Amino acid sequence: MSIIELISTDPCTGDMVWSGPVADSGAVAAAVAAARAAAPAWARTPLDARIAIVRAFKAAVEAVADEFAQAIARETGKPLWETRTEVASVAAKVDISITAQAERAGEKAGEAAGARQLLRHKPHGVLAVLGPYNFPAHLPGGHIVPALLAGNVIVFKPSEQTPAVADFMAALWAKAGLPEGVLTLVHGGGDVGRELAGAQIDGLLFTGSAHVGAALARQFADTPHRILALEMGGNNPLVAWDVSDIDAAAATVVQSAFLSAGQRCTNARRLIVGPGSEPLVDAVLALADRLIVGAPFDEPQPFMGPVIANAAADGLERGWAGLVAAGGRVLRPLIRTRADRPFLSPAVIDMTGHAPSDDELFGPVLQIIRVTDWDAAIAAANATRFGLAAGLIGGDAALFDDFWARAQAGIVNWNRPTNGASSAAPFGGIGASGNHRPSAYYAADYCAYPVATLAADALGGGITTGLRR
Fold first, then answer.
1. In this structure, is residue 427 part of a structural domain?
2. What CA–CA distance (Å, rounded) separates 33 from 299?
């Protein structure tokens, strides 16, 4: 039987970065079996010993931080300054997860019903992790670290776009002393992901698109005993209202819309503005015109690189054409700046009076929607099936309180970019953005299940009523 090879390429050049075999059904089953065999010993490993290995992983990451950042940059096309921040986030996740484990999945004791009451947590067992390409180290690491701390074992399928980063990270876990079988990689595309989701696992932790997340939910429909944590995309609104500092507001809009070439699930896709907003719109356009789009190691460093692949750029061009065909007024066109590579310019289109797309255009495309009053702004912000992030620029505390109360999203920011989120807080959304299992600090919640106990040192008492004499 021939072996199918997976190849990842540098999006900036098309040069091969990594190649290796695609996992067939036998390889997936073998990976799950190896994990199952390793699970009992890892679950019985004392928490302090698991913490020591996770901290050793952090030290290993920090020791090769620049090499790690370069590996991410080559495979994703993200600027080196940005991939360095991703590596820092991978390391920082360790201490945050240790604290969250103690707070949200630790042990508690008390008295109830004349006995000792105990609350402790157990691991699920074998968990699959499906990772995305936009943050190929940080986002899967946000599942892997808390899952390992809780005593689970992992079978990790990274995005087929970023296998080299996954291999780099797995090698650091091995260097940290993680026992064999506790973290196993399988490579491949959607078929391998579906195979792993249907294998004999105890749960699946996913970060990716709403389309794939919905398919996983359907696949898990007949197995409610298996945990499924879905972290998906968003069509995120940013409302600008009564803005006083135009330049600062424009910078917040541009960062929200175009950071990571628009390839963050929390990027702002829609800018909603009220009367008198033309100075802000003009400032946004002027700042977008100044953004440098380039390769990861260029000097000066670019603000953003390409999108992940030519296929992604092709899809964004089709989505842009759909907005134009729907009647959008082009303020800045979406331009393929290199015909053979996926470099795209920041694009802005005014969709006022036309139905904006409720698809997640995962790239540097910002839609502007003009409204006449505050209630219309709230309605426009909530006119989406997604519910990941929402933001307000301007206004006062009372206006933000109203926005917070009425915005339908799991992340609601004020005078900060929509893509500014802390790993020390929960991260997730509602609607098509998630299934109410937020990650980041709350990942500890879905990596273990609580066990309640009433305990006494000896039997006592008895039935005192309802007996015949």
1. no
2. 48
Q: Compute and round to an integer the Cα radius of gyration of the chain.
A: 24
- Whether residues 317 and 357 fall in one domain: yes
Our answer to whether residue 265 is catalytic in this structure is yes
Whether residue 343 is found in the same domain as residue 443:
no
User: What pLDDT shows up at residue 254?
Assistant: 98
Of 253-262, 323-332, 355-364, the least confident: 355-364
d(CA 236, CA 388): 7
User: Which listed residue (86, 160, 195, 265) is catalytic?
Assistant: 265
DSSP string spanning 12-52? TT--EEEEEEPP-HHHHHHHHHHHHHHHHHHHHS-HHHHHH
SS3 at position 86:
helix
Give a yes or no: residue 135 inside a domain. Answer: yes
Domain count, the chain: 2
Q: What is the mean pLDDT of residues 15-40?
A: 97
CATH code for position 111: 3.40.605.10
Give the 3-state secondary structure of residue 268.
Answer: strand
Whether omega for the bond prior to residue 21 falls within 30 degrees of 0, making it cis, is no
Domain region containing 91:
5-232+434-454
Domain assignment present for residue 469? The answer is no
447 is catalytic: no
CATH of the domain at 255: 3.40.309.10
Say if residue 187 is in the same domain as residue 250.
no
At residue 201, the 3 state secondary structure works out as coil
Closest alpha carbon to 317 in 282, 352, 287, 344: 344
Regarding whether 256 and 331 lie in a shared domain, the answer is yes
The Cα 417–Cα 427 span in angstroms is: 15
pLDDT tens profile 411-443: 999 999 999 788 899 999 999 999 999 999 999
pLDDT tens for 350-365 read 999 998 889 999 999 9
Sheet holding 236-241, edge to edge: 329-332, 347-350, 365-370, 268-273, 236-241, 389-394, 411-414
Q: Kind of pairing, strands 16-21 and 5-9? A: antiparallel
Determine which one of 75, 231, 360, 447 is catalytic: 231
Percent of the chain at pLDDT exceeding 90 = 93
Question: Residue 355 has what pLDDT?
Answer: 85
Question: Beta strand pairing status for 153-157 and 126-130?
Answer: parallel
Tell me, what's the pLDDT at 2? 58
Q: Count of CB atoms within 10 A of residue 466's CB?
A: 5
